Amino acid sequence: MGSPSLTAAARLPFRDPALPVAKRVDDLLERLTLDERIALLHQYAPAVERLGVAAFRTGTEALHGVSWLGEATVFPQAVGLGATWDEELVREVAQAVSVELRAFHYHRPTANGVGTNSLQAWAPVLNLLRDPRWGRNEEGYSEDPEHTARLGTAYCRGLAGDHPTYLRAAPVLKHFLAYNNEDDRCVTSSGLRPRVLQEYDLAAFRPAVASGAATGAMAAYNLVNGRPCHVSPLIRTQLREWAVPTGHELFVVSDAEAPSNLVDPEHYFADHPEGHAAALKAGIDSFTDQNEDSSTVTGRLREALERGLIDEADIDRAARRHLQLRFRLGEFDPDLDPYAGIGPEVIACPGHRALARRAATESVVLLKNDGLLPLRAERSPRIAVIGPHADSVYEDWYSGTLPYRVGIASGLRAASAEVVTAEGSDRIVLRSRTTGAPLGGTTFDVQDWGGGALTLRDTLTGRYLTRKDDDSLLAEPTVIKSWFVNETFRLEPDPLGDADTVLLRNIHTGRYAAVDSADGRVATTAATPQEAERWQRELLRDGTAEARAAAEAADVAIVVLGNHPLIDGRETEDRSGIALPAGQEALLRAVAAVRPDTALVVMSSYPYALDWADEHLPAVMWTSHGGQETGTALAAVLLGEADPAGRLPQTWYRGDDELPHPLDYDVIKAGWTYQYHRAAPTYPFGHGLSYTEFTHSDLRLSTTEVAGDGALDVSLTLTNTGGRTGSEVVQLYVRALNARYEAPRLRLADFRKVRLEPGASREVVFRLPAERFAHWDVATGAFTVDPGAYEVLVARSAEDVVLTAPLTVPGAPPAPRAVLGRRTLAVDFDDYTALALVDADRAEGDAVAPAGPARPAGLLFRRADLTGAARCEARVARVDAGGGEARLEILAGDRPLTELAVPVTGGPYTWTTVTAEVTVPVDGVHDLRLILHGDFRLSSFSFAASGDEGA
């Protein structure tokens, strides 16, 4: 017999499914004590046994499969799913992931033995792939906001399911906002001018929230315009506002340890209660901090309450969102749970394996083909598969444990191809110059992963050499997958100049291997080269010679190169460049020299510069790390059993194309992505070849003139003119002609993936709202469709436009910018030089400041109506006078109007207003220029006419 208290709890109103969820949440919230409500704000919320409320944990990683909980179906990395350009396929993948997540929730223990596996899925990642050097490039879908938003929304819908009441899983969008660098990620600030914020970064998140597909979001580690994302006003003014029409509030979670980061290392707040209070008030509902230890976080929040930094309403607001989600997940209605019948047999089931195979196949992108592919048995019966990925499949940080793995060579063999393999790695022995003993008593195969990072794999056991916690060296793990990677080393030159002698240095610790003179034990304890053991490097097998021999004996060579997902580009570590690892590039060239029929297959989490390969090889192909079915999928495409259906989700730049600084987030001015990058890439966004041919014809617009708030239909005919079935991604772009602002070269407006039999045609129709032509008007603070001329473009890629049609938006030209009698925010500039975007205070508002002391900052406000301007005011803040003079110079074009001296205010958030008369008469419309001399901040300015009280 159940306890009387639990029986009574079962009859309480919050248990009644006939009541509206809002009333049920209110009832439960009212029954919780203050301490119980505060406890809900930590990732690990304890049970409330007197009410029969179970413990709850936020977050299970589910980016491309259920992660960290054991064997599960592993689908292609998110960037690979992005390459499919297939919303329905992405939705099906997410559905499979959420079904397996339900099975883990019901039937499998948690990794730490606490509670049940959470049904809140921390996926998808909607951060845009602005910079291909980003260490987490594999986690995003695309460099384009439209493409990312569409696939991200599809993934959310697949996770959530289509039940009208209950979620199958609760998708959480990561990471809000403008997070695209790993190096020093917790202290770097992403500078977002309003146009970049609205047109680029927010645009990727907005549709998933506004459509109701997403149930939550995770704040990012970085800062935006000098303010940590965990206290960003954008959580309230953007994320939550988008969700209002859906009828559901977003549940916003912190990233791991990020609330503590507000104090150290960010030093944004004086202490943790203050930082936690600010995060809670900004909109963080759940604190992922201190792992399972909830007492630290709840103690900080309790202290914040006692100090008056927050009130109970702040706590209740977050607790209510927490409970709303749990009701939507069906926790309180077990008898009505539509997913209760999901059993453990769905995990890695045959249906999901088939879906993983299909997703991996659809994600393969054929970058170049001069006729070598597809391979034909009669022409190329013997295939040499060469390189570090010849028959390897890897897990990344956010993948589940592979239930099995099919490499490329194995996939080709299973398809009855005659295959030989050669990794192309040198086999060496490292012999101590002190003792003469070989390191580990064995030999090692050495692989170059770029950035100077090498792995040494025991040739007898297949295990990687690793540094243990006591600094000893042991060949132990078979898989590299840990937060701190101890399996990468550098072989550095002998300081004494012996060409056959090297030093062995562990990359994670930076320390060198040394031999203990007492017992001969080898450990990475030496701090300097002089203290390190000297190792004689003996070459037992020349990997390049082995690869050449394999290629010479074959009819065709497939060289499979790329990255290891945990090395040289991963969470916490960006790449320094985009070149292939030097050893891999040399291997490729050596093979191609003896076997002209060489195809390069790049298996990677990110783009590489493939200039040489594109110029010299007959075929180049790319896949992400495609999961358990990688080899089966690639074999099908290489042999022509499947058409290469993938298209690039980001630009592959040339090696000699100097990329902008990683922290330059201004895609417009820096020239990031296909929208603004001027130099021709090796492979453009949207690029991908097929084994058949398609023609696009008969482009028709339903109207050649559309109102700014209207829409039109765009139609064309797509025909498969080749000899086999294939897929084409019809890409619809738009661009503004003669724009008054710096418009994108072109911008993706829509896309459709179409599969056609040979000779078949299909009419493809797009509904194109005029809002697709909009830009963020900094003069009015709103999206605007300017009257004028536009083009609608149909393309195979961002650089391969096949059809164009003109379109006109009628109307009067936009009025000049009004600056008289109104406050103009300094960040609402049209252009700038030497500028930094900073926070106006810790809670809200942006300001500008010179990027450095050596050069004045410049702001440009185009077409400002200065008629009648007689006086200027500016709101400024200045910490101290240590940097010399500080002044604001104001010009109309090149003509000086006035100059304002900036006094010391005592702090970056201590603002004052300075005023000066306009010294020369000015009327009409001019380009207004503001020059900031010295170290100070400017938040806004205004002009007033003669006799007006205030500017």
State the strand order across the main sheet. 11-26-25-24-12-13
Number of strands: 47
- Give the rounded overall mean pLDDT: 96
The gross shape turns out to be: globular
Percent in strands: 25-35%
Q: How much helicity do the residues have? A: 10-25%
Uncertain segments are: none
| Number of discrete helical segments | 20
Distance N to C terminus: 77 Å
Rg over CA atoms? 30 Å
- Biggest sheet descriptor: 6 strands, mixed
Structural class of the helices, strands and pairings? alpha+beta
Give a nutshell description of this structure.
The chain has 951 residues and is an alpha+beta fold.
Q: How does the SSE layout of this entry go?
A:
Elements: H1 4-9, H2 21-31, H3 34-39, E1 44-45, E2 56-57, E3 60-61, H4 78-84, H5 87-107, E4 120-122, H6 145-160, E5 170-176, E6 189-190, H7 194-210, E7 216-219, E8 223-224, E9 227-228, H8 234-243, E10 251-253, H9 258-261, H10 272-282, H11 294-306, H12 312-328, H13 350-362, E11 365-369, E12 382-386, H14 408-414, E13 418-422, E14 426-432, E15 444-448, E16 454-458, E17 465-467, E18 473-475, E19 489-493, E20 501-506, E21 512-515, E22 522-526, E23 535-541, H15 543-552, E24 556-562, H16 582-594, E25 598-603, H17 611-616, E26 619-623, H18 630-638, H19 667-670, H20 673-676, E27 694-701, E28 711-720, E29 726-736, E30 747-756, E31 761-769, E32 775-777, E33 782-784, E34 788-797, E35 800-809, E36 817-818, E37 824-825, E38 831-833, E39 835-839, E40 846-850, E41 857-865, E42 869-877, E43 887-892, E44 895-901, E45 912-917, E46 925-933, E47 937-945
Helix pairs in contact: 2-12, 5-6, 5-13, 6-7, 7-8, 10-11, 13-18, 14-18, 15-16
